[in-house]
Automatic annotation (TrEMBL):
The chain crosses the membrane at residues 77-96, 108-125, 132-154, 188-210, 222-242. This is Sulfatase. Residues 11-40 have a biased composition (Low complexity). Residues 1-66 are annotated as: Disordered. The keyword Cell inner membrane does not apply. InterPro entries: Alkaline_phosphatase_core_sf (IPR017850). Keywords: Membrane, Transmembrane, Transmembrane helix. It comes from the Bacteria.
Amino acid sequence: MPHLTPPRQLPDAAAGADPDAVADPDTTAAPDGTAVTGPAEPDGPDTSATPDGPGAAPSGRPGWFGWRRRSPRAARAVRVGTSLLAAALVLVVLLVPNRLDWITVQSFLRLPVEAILLAALLLALPPRPRRTTAAALGVFLGLSAVLKCLDMGFRQTLARPFDLVFDWVLLSDAADWTKDSFGRSGELFAVIGVIVLVVVVLAVSALATVRLAGELARHRPVAVRTTLVLGIVWVICFTLGVQFGGVTFATKGYAQYLSNRVQYVRDGLGDADVYKKEMAVDAFARTPPDRLLTGLRGKDVMLTFIESYGRVAIDDPAMAPQIDATLRAGDARLRSAGFSSRSGWLRSPVTGAGSWLAHSTFLSGTWVKNQQRYRSLTTGDRATLTSYFRRTGAWRTVGIVPGVRKSWPEGRYFGLDHIYDSTHLGYRGPYFSWTPVPDQFSLEAFQKLEHGKKNRDPVMAEIILASSHNPWSPIAHMIDWKDLGDGKVFYRIKKEGTDPTEVWKSAERVRTEYRKAIQYSLDSLTQWVQRYGDKNTVLVFLGDHQPVPTVTGGSTSRDVPVTIVARDPKVLDRVAGWGWTEGLKPAHDAPEWSMDKFRDRFMTAYGPAR
């Protein structure tokens, strides 16, 4: 027959308890031998109820291999330490901002009302619901911690928080970027690491709140008094607006964060209807084809995007001298070939990444700020600038898209007769991190495949240059156009380049490589115009968005340069009233338009003369 511990048995001195202690119905022996005042809680993490009724001392679980009994002081230290760590974890999740640049020591020297309410809730619940509720709230806190980390990452790349409605598709793009930048093994390690980290965060946060619930139950009288006092202190400090070091002490920041996220989701879910109404408004939808773009008939028009070519490249003091020199050299090149240019600013809907949203905004004349709008646009019937060129019947419309490496069904929406992706440009050289084809080769391929053909119709080309795409390491450099061949020459050039894992250890090096990549793209474009341009060439080139905050230094500007280049003076005369700056560099005070306004202004300027 199994031996049962007698009721109200005195603690065993050999187990580490005080042999002179007298058992008390309101005193419970903890496993480490310490006395805890108050009624025993059957769900406390370090006690176990006996079948002998109230007033019985717990059996005292021995811990791993009996170490608690052998080392009661160590056991107590571990219990206190883990409880403190659990409390610290919960406070960090509640207090940490969702932006890296907002994290300071003062951020954590505050009193969150959510912690007080959490303690009050757990104290009010009976034992079993308390444990379940604590675990559920812990998982919720863990999820919010993961969301804050996503916000931090997205702000570092896109200068905005993670969109719970539309941004999940971007996670696969991030995995592709990791593979292209650091190889298949790098992608695999990153994905596995992220999954493991998320599981660990959820598990640890759940264990932390369960641990705190047990401690609150074990020390209930003290916990109730402390919670009440902290609640009163919070109300007083919040009412008086008490601050320490310029930071409000009594905060409800976590609740406000959750409220903002809920509103963000609601706005996202309602945005589809708003955008459908915007797409339906098109000033040129009923214009006859023979009255579209009449001012450009007979011209070869190139609508060219330079990846990440943002205002920072021109305005930042650390980059401006070199970029200025590149733009001056480009101006001289173009003038020597008889070309003139005008430049201004456009405000992109995105920053850091999301090039396809900027391209769609520029071409459709609508504000494509998220993935849902992009899908609505590309599955709808709104005409784009490229499709209007095609509608006239006066141009062959083509796309040079070296960044596309897999099926791109949306390409048909943009009204292109033919699309040349990375596999159809004749390139046999290496990738440069994310970049499949160097810009100089992409432009040379356009010359061979379309522009250089004899007895052809005028061409309208959408060209998306990719060499200045993040991570800007390694990057190509200009070589003699006659030496491009099939691109294998770039194996040697890549080998001479930098290592992205080393470059990204230093923000200064990242900025330097970014600047060099922009210079390479600009040189490729202006040299191509000088080499192959003629009296019928019209080039419109612009940046799609600003680079990541590592380069912009936290700037909130979304401006990108835009330039029109032509040899025929009549082409630039049509935009003389725009107030744009002469040359490739827009003046600081040059007109700044929202990018979605360009399409209609362009089509109006090059429509029938009024």
